[in-house]
Every structure is written in structure tokens, then in C-alpha cells.
Amino acid sequence: xxxxxxxxxxxxxxxxxxxxxASPGLERGNLAELTGxxxxxxxxxxxxxxxxxxxxxxxxxxxxxxxxxxxxxxIDTTRLALLGAEVGVDYIAVAACNxxxxxxxxxxxxxxxxxxxxSVRDTSALVAEARAQxxxxxxxxxxxxxxxxxxxxxDGTLRLAPNVGWRDVAMTPLLAEALRESGCGELPVxxxxxxxxxxxxxxxxGGPDATRSLVFLSSGQGIGAGIILDSGPHLxxxxxxxxxxxxxxxxxxxxxxCGRQGCVETRVSQxxxxxxxxxxxxxxxxxxxxGSRLERGDEAVxxxxxxxxxxxxxxxxxxxxxxxxxxxxLGGPLSRLxxxxxxxxxxxxxxxxxxxxxxxAVRTSRFxxxxxxxxxxxxxxxxxxxxxxxxxxxxx
Amino acid sequence: xxxxxxxxxxxxxxxxxxxxxASPGLERGNLAELTGxxxxxxxxxxxxxxxxxxxxxxxxxxxxxxxxxxxxxxIDTTRLALLGAEVGVDYIAVAACNxxxxxxxxxxxxxxxxxxxxSVRDTSALVAEARAQxxxxxxxxxxxxxxxxxxxxxDGTLRLAPNVGWRDVAMTPLLAEALRESGCGELPVxxxxxxxxxxxxxxxxGGPDATRSLVFLSSGQGIGAGIILDSGPHLxxxxxxxxxxxxxxxxxxxxxxCGRQGCVETRVSQxxxxxxxxxxxxxxxxxxxxGSRLERGDEAVxxxxxxxxxxxxxxxxxxxxxxxxxxxxLGGPLSRLxxxxxxxxxxxxxxxxxxxxxxxAVRTSRFxxxxxxxxxxxxxxxxxxxxxxxxxxxxx
Lengths: 396, 396
Hints:
Two copies of one chain form a homodimer. Chain A has helices at residues 3-22, 28-35, 39-51, 116-136, 171-181, 194-205, 270-278, 287-295, 299-323, 338-352, 371-385, 387-395, and strands at residues 55-59, 71-75, 80-87, 91-97, 103-110, 140-148, 151-152, 157-161, 166-170, 189-193, 214-219, 223-229, 232-233, 327-331, 361-364.
């Protein structure tokens, strides 16, 4: 089969999976109409997809007259698996889920990064653990997505991860080799920025509000955005879109770790909040610490979270007017602090007023702390479901 | 012919035009390869496109052996016309150009808007003048694009034009009727926001740097962005993307006409600059006035333009980090003031430093004062060249 025919077949197969995912219960005849493919082609491809664990066919319970009852198709959640890993600033997390986003395995370890090779090796060992569990459960792992705390260029190079000090690392081959050495064989690997992973958790596995366009804001040590537009990730001309934490919200304001003044991160990040609480640059208080101090009635923490919440709200407003996404999702560790989130939502409402400038909805992440790993796993499915987009990107 | 077949044919015809536009000098055989269409289909469609004035065929001057010399195809610039109109805050402009963006006719009148109906009538009368000229020159006008100084929803409703006081006007039928009454018959009409028009002037007729992704910043009475991503206009979930003038750059800052505080427009707009010069809200100095005062050595104007330039540069930086477009284009009346533009460019360079956050190019508009009308005309071609995108948007 020539390369073109192979691609065409993959496009048609995945179009069928996308249709069944969007509308469970379709019959083969519906798929022929929806895809424009011949009935016989649909039958062959559906048969393959059932054999490979993507779809299942059940006899409809409905009765439509005297004829044979038709088979309805749904996504098979029992035989395939997606693996995700998240290289956090001070942790590594892995997860496995089925192709509907139901979590089957998670593991998270606190971690202090040194050289990138060691972190890659330890991440791969954790991925191997998740993979082994899936294989033991008789599931086929389709690949692994790896979320990174920094800027990932279109070719998979980690351009800069400021909070762990890595720069210009070709992550994909490094991970592929470490995965082989961990016994994962030729597991396909996809690297992406952590905020883009968060965005994919919502886009691939989230509700219908997140399918067309959304901005996922991941706030924690830093703050970044994952952007989905026109039903796909918007990565930017070099893959660096979404670095909103280094947009300037306060000209001449506080000095940022990036060297500029007045970046959003100087107001919305664990370091910014800690500095407001302690009046010192160090230590950076953990989200757990901030949460428990708040529960104990610590007024300094409450003030700091309200101030950060106002700035988070301003940034959400700025994204709504500039990008006009259907929804903005607040995620990342800081989004677990209700006072911060509530203040941000209130700020957005106040700024919206009765103006027609935007009507975008704002809400918190559906997957909470797991958004990063689940989204990394989702990236594997997103790549497989859009083979053409992938070939096009590779050809650029 | 069924609707589906008609759409398919339009898609194939326009694919051919797009290929010839991108690579003048193609032969029929190249088009068959590029489109995947049969040689006979290509021949039929090319014949039609030549008959209708889209393409011209010339015998190649090259000699490739003993055989018949092949015909090379180029865009025919002599027989079709695109019309554009721009409803400015204090003027109406119209233009006609050929399908390569070469301007054939322009007309601009100072104008004081009152009711929207009168403005639509007067705009239509000017369009009729441009159309009559094209007909006299034996060109077929394909349609008219109309740029509006406000927010245009996906269905063509003008949601709000703050500087002329219009709100919730269904512009398309209003314009269509006025054009009929002006003797234009059933001229297809497309309405769009003025900054989006500017973006299309670059995207459709500009250089190769503007084909994939760009942000066009139009600054004058207000400031707005037209965004092109993944080779098409990014309009947002409701059509309201690009309202960057009402993003907040200075929390708690100056009061904006929209009621909020610290919007970009309070720092970068004719009103903001005039206020810095005169220390009064009125009058708003024209760009010509600002330019001639600057030439006469007016230090207050120089200071005001430098201050506005810094804020314009900050906004460009924020767009670069958030969206990562291939290029940001500075347009609108204020972009004629060199000191403002130079200060903005210097600010962007300073903020970029040696960081990998963005490498987007920044430059001024290719069409200068005509970007709005030329872009409005370009929108007609953009709609025709992408029939599928248009059907899909209409079906939403």
C-alpha cells in the first residue's frame, strides 16, 4: 500500500472513531452517510476497528419492524490504553486511562530535578510501571504523552523550562531511548507543554462546551495557557503560543524571573503569593500550606489570594477579549484554592458588565490535579484521531 | 446539479485558483498532481476559469524538446474586480481592486455619522460609483466587502460600534437593500470588523510572511486586532476576537470610554495621545495635526507619541507571547506616525531580549492608509476562495 493510501485509510478509520465518539450508538449506515464512504468500505473499516479494540458492536434493543435488528456502535473502553506523564517542577506524575478518559492508574512522586537525563530516566521508569500494569490488565498501550514545564517547539525541542533550568533539549529521542531501556519497546511518544496538556484533557475528554475553542490556564509555579481553536491545538508559529505568564500586566511593575518587569507571573504564581504572605522571596509556600493557613484564618494568605485572584481575573478578561474562546478553564495547582478562583470569577463578571465584548464561560478544570497527566495521555489520542493534521505538521 | 456537487465543484475550482495564485506559471498537468483531480476534470475547470476571467493561459516561452509547447497559467488581472468599503469613525472610503490586490479606484469622503441608515445609504452610493467605474472598464465586480468600526458577530450583526454609537444592527440585509437601491443589483456583500479587514489585506494580497498566521493591529480612534491563524481568519466563538483595545494593561488605571479602567485604549488611541498633549478630553487631534505639530518640533507631541509607542510595544509583546503569530503588522491611521511606530518596535525588541519566548517579526502595513478598504475587498476573494469554510460557517 502506498503512503498516500495508508494515510487515506488512517483518515477514514479515525473519522469513523471520531463520529462514534461524538455520537455513541451510530449504526454502519449512519457512518456511510456521515463520512461519504461506501457501505462496503465502512463495513471493512468497522470490522478492523472492532478487532483492534477501538469499537464495540451491540445488537440494538430497539425494534424497527420485522427485519434484522441493526448493530449499534460504541467506543470500546476495555482493550486500549493511553499513557500520560507529567514532569512537574517538583514532582513526576504518570497515569493510564482508557480512550474515553477514564483513569485506570495514577502514580505521583515528589521529585527534585537535576540533569535532564536523570529526570527522563526516572520518568520513563514510572511510565514503564503504568505500561506494565496495562499489559497485565490485557490492554494495549497506544503511546505516551509527556507534559513538560516549559516551552516546547513544534519539533519537540524543549526550548526553555525556566523553573528546572533546562534549555534546548531534544526531548523526543531522549525519551524514546529511555523508554526502550525501561522495557517499553517502541512506544510512540509525544511531548507537549503542560498547559497544552491541560487544554487537551478538556478538549479530548471534556464536555461539549470544550470541543470547539477553549483556553486552559494552568497556574502554579508559573502560569501558562493551552489554547484550542477551530477544534485543534493552537501551538503558534513556533509552538510557543500560550506563554501568557510573561505578558505584561503592570508596566514598570515587579521584576520577574525572566528579567522583565510587570509580567503576570509576578502577580499570579506560588512565588508571587508567597512573597505577599511572607514578604520574602523564599521559601515558596506550597499550595497545601497556603490552603491550610487559609483554613486556620490567616488574613495575610486571604489578602494575597484575593490580590492574585484579581490579577488572574484581569488576565482571563484579556484572553476573552483578544481570543473570544467558547470557554476559559482554570487549572493547575493554584486552581484548588477556592478563594483565588472565586475572586478571579468575580473579577471577570465585574469587567464583563453588560458589555458585548465577550460572553465566554469561565470554569474550573474537569480533571482537577490530574488534568496534566490525563491531558498528556489525551495527546496520544488527539494525534491518532487527526492523522492528517499530524502529517501536515511533520511536513512543515 | 445537487447542492453537494455544486459545492464540490466550487471547492475544486477555487483550489485551482489558489494554486495558480500561489505559484503563477503552473501547467494543467501540475494542477492535476496538486489537486488529485483527473486531467480531464482539470481541463474542464481551467477552461471555465479562463472564460470567466479568473485565469489566463499563455504559451510557454521555454522549449522542452520537439513537442507542443505547454500552456502556463497565471491569474488574469484584467477582467474581474473586487469592491471594498470602509465605514470609518469620521470618513467613508471605497476602493476597487483586481484579484491580485492592485488598486484600480479609490475614493474617500469626510463624514459625520448620525443614523446608521443614512450612513449605509451614503456608503452604498459610493460603492455604486466604484462599481459603475468597473463596469465601464469592462470588469465584472464579484462582490463588496464592508469594514465597520466595531464588533461584528458571526452572523454579520454589528454588535457595537462605540465611536459612532450604533448597537445591534443587522448590517448585511441593510446594506444589500441599499446597494440594490443604488443600482448595484444583487451584488454579494460581506461585512467585517475593520481590523479583520486590515488582516485580510495582508493575508490575501501580502507577502509570503503573512499567509500562515498574523496579527494586524489597527490603531486610530480605537485599537483592535485582526487575527489570521492556521491560514484563515480567527473570528472567535462569537466573532468578537481581537478586541485587544479593551484588554487591561494598567489595573486601576485611567477610565476608558467602555467604563473599565486601564484598558489599552486609554494609552494607545488618538484620544489618549491628544489628552497627553492638551491635558483635555476634547478636541481629539487628528493624525495629520499630530504629524505636523511633531514636524514643527512640538515636544509635548513627541513625549505623548513615545509614551503611546511604549504601550503599543507592550501590547505587541503580549500578543507575541500569547498567540505566537509569524508576524505582527502595525496599521491604522496612527501607524503613519513614525515616532510612535519606532518606539513600539524598540520596546518589542527590548522586551524580547535574548529570551526564546517569541521571535515573531513586527512591521508596518503593506497597504498603509488603504489597508482597510483593500482588506474589505480582499474579504470578497477570501470568501470565494474558501467555499467550504464559508458553507461550514453558515451551517453553524
